[in-house]
Amino acid sequence: MHAFEYASPATLQDALKLLGQQWGQADVLAGGTDLLSLMKDGVHTPRRVVNIKGIKELGGIQASGTSVRIGATVTLDELAESPVIRKSLPALRTAALGVTSPQIRNMGTVGGDLCQRPRCWYFRGGHGLLARDKNGQSLVPNGENKYHAILGNRGPAYFVSPSSLGPALVALGATIKLASTMGTREVEAARFFVTPASDTQRETALMPYEILTEVVVPIGMRNATYEVRQKQALDWPLAAAAVALKMKGTAVESARVVLGHVAPTPWPATQADQMLAGKTITGDVAEQAARAALADATPLSQNAYKVQLARVAVKRALLEAAKGRA
Amino acid sequence: MPEYSWPPKEKRRLMGKRHDRIDGLEKATGKAKYGSDLNLPGMLHGALLTCPHAHARVVSIDTSAAERMPGVTAVRLIAKAGDEIQWAGAEIAAVSAKTEEQARDAVKAIQVQYEPLPHLVHEHDLQKAGPRAKAAGEVLEGDPDEAFKTADVISEQMYGIPVITHCCLEPHGNVVRWQGDKVDLYPSTQNVSGIGGDLAKSLELPAAQVAVHQDHIGGGFGSKFVADRWGVEAARLSKASGGAPVKLFLDRATELTIAGVRPSAYGVVKLGAKKDGTVTVWESRTWASGGFTGGNSPPIPYVFTRIPNKRQNHSAVSINAGGARAWRAPNHQQACYLTCSALEDLAAKLKMDPVELFKKNADWTPRPEVYRSQIDKAAELIDWKKKWHPRGDSGSSHLKRGLGLALHTWQGGGHASQARTTIHADGTVEIELGSQDLGTGTRTAIAIVAAETLGLRIQDIRVKIGENAYPPSGASGGSTTIGGVSGSTRRSMTHALDKLFDVVAPVLGAPKEQLEAVDGKIQVKGNPAKNLTWQAACAKLGMNKISEMGTNDPKNPGGLTSAGVGGVQMAEVEVDTETGLVRMIKTVAVQDCGTIVNLKTAESQTYGSVIMSICAALMEERIMDAQTGRVLNPDMEFYKLAGIGDIGEIVVYMNMEKEYDDRGVIGLGEPPAIGGITAIANAVANAIGVRVSHVPLTPERVLAALERRNA
Ligand SMILES: Cc1cc2nc3c(=O)[nH]c(=O)nc-3n(C[C@H](O)[C@H](O)[C@H](O)COP(=O)(O)OP(=O)(O)OC[C@H]3O[C@@H](n4cnc5c(N)ncnc54)[C@H](O)[C@@H]3O)c2cc1C
User: Fold this and answer.
1) Is the ipTM, as predicted for this complex, more than 0.95?
2) Which positions in chain B touch A234 (Cβ < 8 Å)?
């Protein structure tokens, strides 16, 4: 393992000063559940590791009447167990509980979940985020792509966004706060995740000199997440959907359906949103919305099944949200 | 001549009952030390450089930078310029350094130039294998053509079962110290008595110079018998580093890439049968690969070996991937899958209950009565009569339940084993064997047999295994250990007791033939008031001790162990036809293993086997990348294994009826790990109305099969 310098500052300002201008100079360490494997596998070789778990202001969950603030170092377990999340944001709670095992939920943080790197096996195997061979061609389309993207996969990126919280936050219209020594900025969750167009880009809006400090999530919508997982533990969803519904009586006033684990970013299924407006959710409506959500899917050689799984996720998430527990 | 045979069932105090493992607490608390836990004073760390190409020629290797790296004590070349490498992960060089990180960094600093050569890493498509598929020649029996002509029904189907790895939780490796002319080896091995000699041969040392020490092993499953390249290199690194111990264990990725696999099996099976379900003819065209050396045909037709007319053609496909090693019941899962799936498909075609079809054809097996009664027992335990429905006839909900079954067999006779019992004057009893406890509970079984023989408690026996200085005992392969060690233990204990009787007889004033060891006492048969406590009896040894050998000779086991068992497994699954996800509801395992020494660990073996079968049936496979030639999932993330939430209910029934019990002790490590995969696959076919031809039964495969059915 590459030798590195370790710092554990007590304040956000000190932490920010320790970051670099380029990727590779420093990596933020939260729960370490992803960073440690990245470093062991030689995918990340930071010269400095900056632990942020000692920074008080990055923790805690606070609710106001209209929104919930979630600190970056809140663990997935704290998130799932928080009464306000349980009551108002089941989409987020389900997503957090889906991250198994308990050990990962106890260590893994909200900021870490959003900033974790894709699990694409070519990326993790040392072929770069865009999984290119020595001629610059992506290994994915002709390779083993059963876990890869079925949407937003016209290249050069084929991986899927790994974050389970991402789709829920995008559906709920959350805001993500990023701090640097120059100040802070707010990014809509939908804009935080980006599809890289070149090898020098990353899959989020985070800059090497920034720390994700908190997430602010509006409350008041019915919401739910449904994940299709092969295994009960230590596994990733094959497809997922998060939905947030603004209701008018028993009908949907407006809907946001976001697919997870099927595209390089959480994937807003706007066709489904449009289709749902004004409708009362029934099995048939949910089914139609599911079909609309995947209408543009372009599966690769081995992952057509994910289209079906994503449809099921949309349908089941909608039916769950329509029950109106939140 | 002392009497060795097992006491009659009703007289056994310990054997056949449920006992905790004697090392359970130390394992559960972490006190137990595995080779990979060792941290000897002055210990160095070894690391391997492996080849990134599936097929390449080594052009040059330059280790000079690595040699200058901090902490590095030795660099050794395993390959040399000009060598042709046949799989990614093949060993190129080894380094030792003061820390593990330094060793790994130094490995990265070795410069190797390769000339990549064309490779083949997939065998599932025989067409693409071209000349790398070698036909083994036709096997013919009876007149299959005529039999097909006269058959009432013919069923033909393609099947596939992939390469999987052993995935031992403790990876392969060892700590080794080569100081002067003496080597101390702390391995992770299934072969305590044999591995020292194997290492000595490679090191060109007299075998007596290698001392082997192993308290515990974290899984082997058939992959840990020899010293291996990494063992030999660790020893040489130790010598080159002035005799400091070197620890070299494979990292997870290397473990899953080169430390052994179960070969695959693919092929088309065609059966002909009479209307009543009696199979009259078998025809198969199969192929398999276990790496560069190809892959033999599984023993098909499996269990139903006496099907009268047969034609078999098999091809071995050589691919550029890490090679096969024995994998818990080698080639039997593949054989079972090809055979018992084909029988289930035949039953479906005949619209017959497969339980009836399997029973009808039991006459084609070597033990019809065993299988028929086991099928009935399993059917009762899974409520087959009530729950079974014809294939696909499973209601309108998207959740479909189904049942399936499979049969298996195994030999499992005890291996050659010697044991030495020592009885000390203070009453202490020791037994020494150069054996190993693979996690099967061997230590505990030895203690049970010993205590049963001496009339003592399990905790009164000191079991010493894991050193090659002890009397030699066979490698733990082929489910041979329990038969071997219980035979040798029984005999050495009986000999030692006989010697003790010699000493005690005059004191009790009775001929030694009249003595018996019961409940911690030596007493006169029929007159238990005349007795000496065990302690008092042993005290008569004065300054002496008793040391007696006992041998299990596989050619002459004397009724203590025998071979050849049957087993039946049935599975109930629920398939979500919208997602293709298979959920285990229940698995029933009915298993014969002769005389049972410890019922608890026997059941544990079977639980573990069923869990492995669930992994292999639903999720487990090695995924190779055709472009890079590498394993894509050499990790525990996408190399998927079941967790607690994935296994459903498991019901184990061990056959302990008299006719089984009378047979002597028979091994159990392998047989229950065979049928489960096929029982699950058959249950899925029953649930969804269509065969999913290839395991693992992943959502994509199940959905694709459903789509085919609906089309
Ligand atoms: C077997 C397994 C299964 C899993 N399944 C799922 C799943 O189903 N769904 C899912 O979403 N996740 C899953 N995970 C991933 C897990 O949720 C993440 O590893 C975890 O959330 C990361 O959080 P962490 O605090 O440990 O991050 P770290 O490992 O500390 O950091 C991860 C990355 O984010 C960066 N980072 C962390 N915090 C910040 C911050 N505040 N500001 C800027 N950068 C930051 C780090 O520099 C690093 O690059 C799984 C992981 C494993 C091992």
Assistant:
1) yes
2) 636-637, 643
